[in-house]
Amino acid sequence: MDWRLLAKRQWPLALSLAGIVVAEAGSIDTASGWWQVPGVLVICVIAVLAPRRPFDAALAVAFSIACVAGYLRFLGVAFEPHFFISGANISTTGAAMATIAVLVRESSRWRAVIGTLLVVGAMIAAEVLGWPVVSAVEYRDWEPDPSSYLFGACIMLVLAVGTGLYFRARDAERASQLAASVAAAQNAERMALARELHDVVAHYVTAIVVHAQAGQMNRDADVLPVIAASGNEALTAMRRLVGTMRDGDSAGPAASSSLMDDVRSLAAESGLPVRLSFDLRDAVPQELARSVLRLVQESLTNTRKHALSVSSVDLELSSGDGLLRLVVLDDGVASGVPVGGSGGYGLVGMRERVELLGGTFSAGRREPTGWTVRAELPIA
């Protein structure tokens, strides 16, 4: 764990233990009693740093508690004030509980069990080592009730383990939610990439196939420059798409400051008899204009792929009441086999694009012949 993250996470525990140690130091009566302070500080520091290496911290805390209790017994003093019958004080008990909670939260099951048993064993050892010193001074006239202290110790152990299990479950839930969010984001990126590939590359490749077939049928060499131009456009679009994926910018056609000019350019490139009608009363944002160009491009590509005997394509673009409206009508006859085959994703991608922008989309056959595409997109 990073030191900055550790400090952000552990500062409440550090302040709490520091305050308890200071309060306990104020209750020390004998000079030899001050020997507990260095050992207690070491135990508290290890507890604060426990998230970095939980199992090692549990071993170090258990060893430190046993060592402090041992040299206090050697000096003939006890923890002041001792929290249980004769053993560790409040700060040591709090550090042990915090270490167990971190261990249960972050370590494997067997490491958590072993580390917890070692810390509990060290606390019991502190009780046993401190008993002869404390009993000789404090328990000469009456005998303490071990069952009440044992009950309190069990409550604290359950509280420490329960806290660790709670945070462990919450971490697992958070990791699951994060994994689901990452999967959803990756899926959205794949869908966006699929739309871009279909809308950009398929448009120019379809033009190449159409002109190549026309050249084969008519033995017309004049289509070769058109095929070359469409190939260059396809390569440019692919490079733009790859650059977008590398740089992280949003992909899309290069929209100029004039949406009408861009639509005219797409209509001219399509080679279809397109009749344009514009009634734009509102300024169209650049991002929205780029999506409209995608819809126009895909609509004209579908007409060229799926329709025969097209005598006119009516393209209307208007705005009003906060909406941008696009209508594309053709009078072609549905072909049995579309040029280059069909993956069936064109209308799906158009509908997804419109719905992502909060608009409505519809497409269907006209009577007696032809196809209609309608889209309404909010401008704001």
Secondary structure layout:
Layout: H1 3-25, H2 36-48, H3 54-75, H4 90-106, H5 109-138, H6 146-218, H7 223-247, H8 259-270, E1 274-279, H9 286-306, E2 307-308, E3 313-320, E4 323-330, E5 333-334, H10 346-356, E6 360-365, E7 371-378
Parallel strand pairs: 1-3
Antiparallel strand pairs: 2-5, 3-4, 4-7, 6-7
Transmembrane segments: 33-50, 57-76, 82-104, 116-137, 149-167
Organism: Lentzea xinjiangensis
Protein name: histidine kinase
Explain this structure.
This protein is of the alpha+beta class and 380 residues long. It has two domains: 3-144; 256-380, Heat Shock Protein 90 (2-Layer Sandwich). It has helices at residues 3-25, 36-48, 54-75, 90-106, 109-138, 146-218, 223-247, 259-270, 286-306, 346-356; strands at 274-279, 307-308, 313-320, 323-330, 333-334, 360-365, 371-378. Helix 3 runs antiparallel to helix 4 and helix 3 (54-75) runs parallel beside helix 5 (109-138). The radius of gyration is 38 Å and the shape is rod-shaped. Residues 249-253 have low confidence and may be disordered.
